[in-house]
Amino acid sequence: MRTGRSWAWSFVAPALLILGLYLVYPTLATIYTSFLDRGSVHWVGLENYGYAFTSPAMLTAFRNNLLWLFLFTAATVGLGLMLAVLTDRVRYEAVAKSVIFLPMAVSFVGAGVVWKFVYAYNPPGASQIGLLNQIVVALGGQPVGWLLERPWMNNIALIVVGVWIWTGFAMVILSAAYKGIPRDLKEAARVDGAGEWQLFWRVSLPYIQSTLAVVTTTMLINVLKVFDIVYVMTNGNFGTEVVANRMYKEMFQFRNFGRASAVAVVLFLAIVPLMLLNIRRFRQQEVER
Amino acid sequence: MRRDILAWLAVAALSFPLAPVLAAQGGTVTILGTWGGQELAAFEKVLEPFEAATGINVEFTGTRDLPAVLTTRVQAGDPPDMAALPNPGQMQELAAGGHLVDLGKVLDMKQLRNDYAPVWVEMGSYGGKLQAIFISADLKSLVWYDPKAFAAAGYSVPTTWDEMMALTDRIASQGETAWSIGLESGAASGWPGTDWIEDIMLRTAGPALYDQWVAHDIPWTHPAVKRAFEIFGQIARNPRYVYGGPTAVLSTNFGDAANPLFTKPPGAYLHRQASFITSFIREKNPGLVAGEDFTFFPLPAIDPKYGVPALGAADMIGVFKDTPQTRALVRYLATPGAQEIWVAQLGKLSAHKRVNPNAYPDELTRKMAEVLVNAQVFRFDGSDLMPPAVGSGAFWEGVLNYVGGEDLDTVLETIEAAADDAYTSGKATD
């Protein structure tokens, strides 16, 4: 028994070592740096955290991250679920799913660049190269500066890009769970007189509940870290700042290592509970199996 | 095996006295910079004779995200051999961190002081040591126009700010727009607006106050700063004066902003932008002839007291690793010959006194070089000299917010708050 245990440790050790080197050490170093000044020389105590929680830029970032949190998560999970159920019933399911899943293959930066063209603005009278403004003008409207209209329009325009990328992912996972619902269960419900709507709410949804929760928390974690889309499309201008972009700016543009680390720690702390929740859900799923 | 070692030792012993010469033959120099496309092609032309003569291979890596990449590599202890830096602020930070090689040990300083005006030597120095050399400059205080369109409409080139604004008004009263401005530039959006404000500051407040402003010895809420923003706002925020109104100003890329000048009929008649815009104009409107289809006049004086100052930027080369190869390359880049190739390819201007004016590709560029040389006052782009949190942070953002319609006092207070913070905490680490 004892030898068995030490054997196990020798297998785990390399993984632990790598984890320690690449995850635990940088995390601790970041936390330490967050208490130092911009050049990591002098101890400044909680000053950087004061900035991280009270500066106007960070407050805007928090507001926007919250907006992302609600809209992005609701949209990806909601649309993903809807599409998972709907595509389940069509003959060309594989094709439909592939098309929806395709944006997943595009990098965030790539998507940002592409969507910047979609939202492009030219003055009224000039030819519109942006798809969206082309449509607006064709319908007789005035072109809109989609990425300039604060505070909601431009943030929503950015969130749409995120949703475009991630809905496919949510759909695929949810679709797998949906297909896992035993046929007999559904048929039994139908025999008992349940309508399609009742079937969905009373049978399907409870059955895939834990998958739904995992997808939701995954999306929440994803969205807290949102950076690329904002960086490429607006760089946080016009009130579209998000926490991760602020961290990047403080670190690489302003070279303020203390503040960047404090913002990173705040982001980390916001994500940890969700991670724990996710791990617990995973474990539950394992037990259920 | 043993014979190999002996042979190797023999070679080593023989080459020892020749080491300084031999080492300069062959090897590699890595350079990190922002250049790509045309600029990179021009730089490769500059390097050709050097590589052929020395056998040294130069590897250039270009990234638009230079500050981030360079910061990461320097912090990781893996800097490139050399870097082409776009701003003295970053050079100073690197020099303060002790990362740059003292070029006073590499170059003949007496020759250098003959070749460059004192302002250029001073700007490349930190802590009394030369840390970087300038290989070219860009002049910013230029207003571009299409002389043919001007002639067709019966407009004449304004020589004072009042004349320029009268022309602006006249164009507007004819139902057309005078100006085209584009502030969009990806993650660097806003910088063209800061150039406007710096140019106006130099013309309304003078170089002394400009220096105080850049050093944050006067607050951003100072009336002189406020006035400069307002003068800019009179144009950029006025839908009658600027093509497409403020929305177009904010969403048009700076490289595209000159295009309305060349449509038929023109969407706009005037465009204030640095000397480098010629390469964008040529690229986006092939067939236009410099000097005939587009030309410039210096941004006129506002207050006669301060005349027509020149605002500019420059490309500087700093060295991280002191090797025979980097020494050879930096010596080469400091020669007029190398810089003539560079300016000839790009239409950039050289700050080097011995560069032959005939090296410039056209009359237009020679004229720009003349403006640069003859300016009573030259000042470096202020936002590049400020701490990045202000110069490439709050200032850029503030200009965008101001043009977007935000109240000016709020904008200036926000920048002032950022400046207060950045300048004092900057001093703390010194």
UniProtKB/TrEMBL annotation, chain A:
<keyword id="KW-1003">Cell membrane</keyword>
<dbReference type="InterPro" id="IPR051393">
    <property type="entry name" value="ABC_transporter_permease"/>
</dbReference>
<feature type="transmembrane region" description="Helical">
    <location>
        <begin position="7"/>
        <end position="25"/>
    </location>
</feature>
<keyword id="KW-0813">Transport</keyword>
<dbReference type="InterPro" id="IPR000515">
    <property type="entry name" value="MetI-like"/>
</dbReference>
<dbReference type="GO" id="GO:0005886">
    <property type="term" value="C:plasma membrane"/>
</dbReference>
<keyword id="KW-0472">Membrane</keyword>
<dbReference type="Pfam" id="PF00528">
    <property type="entry name" value="BPD_transp_1"/>
</dbReference>
<comment type="similarity">
    <text>Belongs to the binding-protein-dependent transport system permease family.</text>
</comment>
<feature type="transmembrane region" description="Helical">
    <location>
        <begin position="66"/>
        <end position="87"/>
    </location>
</feature>
<feature type="transmembrane region" description="Helical">
    <location>
        <begin position="257"/>
        <end position="279"/>
    </location>
</feature>
<feature type="transmembrane region" description="Helical">
    <location>
        <begin position="156"/>
        <end position="178"/>
    </location>
</feature>
<feature type="domain" description="ABC transmembrane type-1">
    <location>
        <begin position="62"/>
        <end position="278"/>
    </location>
</feature>
<keyword id="KW-0812">Transmembrane</keyword>
<dbReference type="GO" id="GO:0055085">
    <property type="term" value="P:transmembrane transport"/>
</dbReference>
<protein>
    <submittedName>
        <fullName>ABC transporter</fullName>
    </submittedName>
</protein>
<feature type="transmembrane region" description="Helical">
    <location>
        <begin position="199"/>
        <end position="224"/>
    </location>
</feature>
<feature type="transmembrane region" description="Helical">
    <location>
        <begin position="99"/>
        <end position="118"/>
    </location>
</feature>
<keyword id="KW-1133">Transmembrane helix</keyword>
<dbReference type="InterPro" id="IPR035906">
    <property type="entry name" value="MetI-like_sf"/>
</dbReference>
UniProtKB/TrEMBL annotation, chain B:
<dbReference type="InterPro" id="IPR006059">
    <property type="entry name" value="SBP"/>
</dbReference>
<keyword id="KW-0732">Signal</keyword>
<feature type="signal peptide">
    <location>
        <begin position="1"/>
        <end position="23"/>
    </location>
</feature>
<dbReference type="Pfam" id="PF01547">
    <property type="entry name" value="SBP_bac_1"/>
</dbReference>
<protein>
    <submittedName>
        <fullName>ABC transporter substrate-binding protein</fullName>
    </submittedName>
</protein>
<dbReference type="InterPro" id="IPR050490">
    <property type="entry name" value="Bact_solute-bd_prot1"/>
</dbReference>
<keyword id="KW-0813">Transport</keyword>
<comment type="similarity">
    <text>Belongs to the bacterial solute-binding protein 1 family.</text>
</comment>
